[in-house]
Amino acid sequence: MTRILGVCHDVFICSACIVEDGDVVVAIPEERLDRVKMSNVFPTTAVQACLEQAGIDMSELDEIAVAWNPVIDLETTPSGYLNARRWRVEHLTQVPARFLGLAGRQAGATATFIDLWPDAPPITYVDHYLAHLANAVYLSPYEECAAAVIDGRAERRTGMLARASGVDLEVLGETNFPQSLGLMYGAVTQYLGFTPDSDEWKVMALAAYADADNEFLAPMRRLVEIDEAGGFSVALEYFAYYNFWDRRMYSDRFVETFGPPRARAEDITERHQRIAAALQLVFEESMAGILRALHARTGLDRLVLTGGCAMNSAFNGKISELTPFRESFITSCPDDSGTSIGAALYRHGVLTGTRSAAFSPTNYWGPSYSDEDCRATVESFKLPNHTVVDDPAEAAARDLVVGRLIGWFQGPMEFGQRALGNRSILADPRHADVKDRVNAAVKYRESFRPFAPAVLAEHVPAWFECPIGTHVPFMERVLRFRPERAAEVPAVVHADGTGRLQSVDASTNPRFHALIRSFHEKTGIPMVLNTSFNLNGEPIVCTPRDAVRTFFSCGLDVLYLGNVRIEK
Questions:
Q1: What's residue 445's pLDDT?
Q2: Residues of CATH 3.90.870.20 domain(s) within the chain?
Q3: Which residue has the higher pLDDT, 337 or 92?
Q4: Yes or no: domain 141-330 corresponds to CATH 3.90.78.10
Q5: Rounded distance, CA 263 to CA 121, Å?
Q6: 252 has which bridge partners?
Q7: Is domain 371-567 annotated with CATH 3.90.870.20?
Q8: 23-29 and 15-20 as β-strands: parallel, antiparallel, unpaired?
């Protein structure tokens, strides 16, 4: 057996995982354990939790794979790190030191390199984009495919195009910093008063409220160029994201062209909506241009897409419409958090020359809590008004039908930025005011942001404009509702008639599927409103204790903790 620990750190949402013989057996973001949203510290707690869940210690690892290559940072003057926490080259010593500390803690005594290092597994630093690439390819169902990695930046890259065949990854071309489509989107996110590298999906949601063919479209189009090979360039005079000493990512010229920036507390106006709409359209046109060039270079009809830009679910839903690719796959974690998995999978491929033969569209890789664990937590708190139910799916469906807002905590935790039915807040999608109720009671977020429908997989084509057999297991695509059905579920239909759906299959999540099936039998609606189980500014809950605390800190009506029903 080949057993590899994957780690990503000093990025947005650090994480750890363990891959055994090419399969992910456990993966956990650090934020779920240290309870700091988008935690970017070294994932010590996640590493320990992964080892415990896998039932091993560090001596049983064959290798440690780190999803960043600090040697590349030696090639450039570190001026960009003057205001940063550290120069990344320090990872060459800091990462081994972190693991030495963990090994010493496991040994139960103070340890030195002489004591422990001869028996420690080797540490391999994997290029960040190769980790992204392996995450996309090796988790996909495709033996052969084209691949694209596009996000803000890594060691020096901002884009990569590749061809994959089996375990072989052939890099066809790259775009390097400071040319960056992801950082351009982030700069406009900041200009619109939001937080870059965090709130880009707010801009994506805001774009639906305006026609993109407006006065800002032409100047926005001048900001990006795509070449015939699929490379891209940005009009750098409009931006300042490459001036690391300047916290502002856009330049005076951008302000001269698009008007004054929005302050964080300022009301959102129609001008802001039009700028967001123009940005989203130009982003989609640019991504489509890159992928059309990739298709021309490879001649392949299957695509995997990854990197931060693959979190743009509005574009993801249009890939088959805007490009020649007939099929596409996006993992549950194309963002930085998924590179721990990608680094481990990449090293497994290098060491063994193989990849996992089994494809499973799941990401339930986190800590799992049985019904017995949940009951023990409830009893430890001496919570009133709780009962053990024989069929939590049926009971929860009844609660939804009468309008209750539900916290739904079941089984192993999802990996990725979206809750997929194990750490979810659920509501009845049939009433337009439900969106406002969830916002007022729990999420406390901007009113223009939509909530997602979780749909029985077998009913997706009847409700959305898509081919039969369409699967969206990770809430990774926005699709258009069929106009004749949208009015039946106003709480999950966005301003432009779309929804960022999750298709729920009985084989991957039987209890969640049973809940929606029961709701369908009672209402004729094969979907529920699904949003992540967390308060605004907090990470998604991980443990039963997290769920109980969150439940009693907000306006949820009922909590299903395994098969325990708790009512306020």
A1: 80
A2: 371-567
A3: 337
A4: no
A5: 50
A6: none
A7: yes
A8: antiparallel
- Which residues is 498 bridged to in the sheet? 480
Contacts of residue 56, Cβ cutoff 8 Å, sequence gap at least 6: 3, 18
- For 380-398, letters b (16+ CB in 10 Å) and e give eeebeebeeeeebbbbbbe
Side-chain half-sphere CA neighbours of 140 within 13 A? 26
The pLDDT, as a whole number, for residue 440 is: 86
User: Percent of the chain beyond pLDDT 70?
Assistant: 95
- Angle made by CA atoms 387, 390, 394, in degrees to the nearest 5: 100
Q: Residue 59 gets which letter from DSSP?
A: G
The 8-class DSSP code of residue 267 comes to P
Q: Residue 402 burial (CB < 10 Å; 0-12/13-18/19+)?
A: exposed
| Among 286, 285, 290, 284, residue whose Cα is nearest residue 303 | 290
The dotted CATH code for 3-130+339-352 is: 3.30.420.40
Q: Are strands 123-125 and 63-66 parallel, antiparallel or unpaired?
A: parallel
* Interval 262-312: pLDDT, tens: 999 999 999 999 999 999 999 999 999 999 999 999 999 999 999 999 999
DSSP state for residue 440 in the 8-state scheme: I
Nearest alpha carbon to residue 177 among 200, 195, 194, 160:
160
Neighbours of 191 (CB within 10 A): 24
Return the structure tokens found at 123: 């540490």
Q: Assess contact for 132 and 149: CB atoms under 8 A.
A: yes
Cα–Cα distance measured from residue 316 to residue 477, given in angstroms and rounded to the nearest whole number: 5
- Environment class of residue 487 by beta-carbon count within 10 Å: exposed (0-12), middle (13-18) or buried (19+)? exposed
Q: Identity (one letter) of the amino acid at 566? A: I
Q: Is it the case that residue 385 has pLDDT exceeding 90?
A: no
- The dihedral of CA 330, 199, 45, 512: what is its sign? negative
User: pTM of the entire structure?
Assistant: 0.94
- SS3 of 421, please? coil
Round to whole Å and give the CA distance between 180 and 533.
33
Taking CA atoms, 380 is separated from 63, 266, 383, 545, 563, in Å, by: 40, 45, 8, 10, 16
Dihedral sign for Cα 551, 552, 557, 561, please: positive
Amino acid identity at 489: V
Which residues partner with 65 through β-bridges? 6, 124
Element (H, E) at 232: strand 232-234
Q: How confident is the model at residue 120 (pLDDT cuts 50, 70, 90)?
A: confident
DSSP summary character for residue 61: -
Q: Residue 439 carries which side chain, given as an amino acid letter?
A: N
User: Boundaries of CATH 3.30.420.40 in the chain?
Assistant: 3-130+339-352, 141-330
User: Region 534-548: what's the mean pLDDT?
Assistant: 96
